[in-house]
Input
Amino acid sequence: MTPHVVPDPQAGAAVKAADRAHVFHSWSAQGLIDPLAVAGAEGSYFWDYDGNRYLDFTSGLVYTNIGYQHPRVVAAIQEQAAKLTTFAPAFAIDVRSEAARLIAERTPGDLDKIFFTNGGAEAVENAVRMARLHTGRHKVLSAFRSYHGATSTAINLTGDPRRWASDTGSAGVVRFWAPFLYRSPFYATTEEQECERALAHLEDTIAFEGPATIAAIILETVPGTAGIMTPPPGYLAGVRAICDRYGIVFVLDEVMAGFGRTGKWFAAEHFDVVPDLMTFAKGVNSGYVPLGGVAISAEIAATFDKRPYPGGLTYSGHPLACAAAVATIQVMEDEKVVEHAARIGETVLGPGLRELAERHPSVGEVRGTGAFWALDLVRNKETREPLVPYNATGEANTPMAAFGAAAKKHGLWPFINMNRTHAVPACNVSEAEAKEGLAALDAALSVADEHTA
Output
């Protein structure tokens, strides 16, 4: 029983009834879902109206990087609302300028101009538009194992099955295989081989598509929803070199990996790579008010010095969202949240997850860094057959559904995608909370083990 709320099942039932009557949920068959009615949240936890408390190992949708209801960010939003609640994006507003300055201070290289959006998908849309206008080319290359958002261009760039129903094939998108040694499409046995063969494959794809037709290559620096596959050493530097060779704009999508998630302000820092454009959202203000954006290099920004940029949003750089970003970045700096994420990954999450892998036959591989980890669940460790088929639903997804139910029974809200569970708690999760999550995963994995061969 959580001390934060007196159980009130009747109120919970009313919330649920109103939701079922009027809310249309994303990515769902509306008649088959049963959303949990949430009564409140604080730090790394949330709770329902029955008094059940859950340790959130999803960080919302991997965005509450400083946890729920941080008092300094809540206060900053309240103070901004009292001062200036909203204002059109064409004006210079102090909190908007300060948010842009703080972000630009932390982006790599010369990514010093910030175009604000309402979220990550819009950031990708505008980054691609900038790349196409800058180069005068149309095609964009993206990886099969990727997620870039659900707006028109972003969903076409996405590699996972959520794009299928909306994939018109008219967006000039070409997909390629990015490196993933555990399930290598290149029959590689070492990281060096995987890197070399993945780069050769990418350059071959460019050659056959026509380098002069390609505006951009977009990659998640560390793919998130697709499986948290950290690229091998040298890969992103190799992509950077290929882009330079052919005049292609290099876009890194840091919507999920950015703002401390990997133990660096941006994941690109791990690889000493500077893209031409970088998208961000989520952790920039811990999702307290919708905000995203594009960090733009000097060269691409100069394209629009005398030429209007044909894009914009009514709420670009919304004062409340920017106030939340300023406060969040200051909290992360003052409380050393980025350093904490690196340390908790190195000393607690990484070792703990690898120890679980040694004991559970359902865990094929552990991948990650910082507060950004994935367990690849399998039926057989030798064959690496996934615990459930690709994009499984219904009865075929029973093993993962059973695993998820077991995790919730033990007080853990898990992040599940296909045959994987991701350990992505708040970046400031405490050591005790991380160990609590590992213990719940341990119990839930015993259920997954029952489905191994």
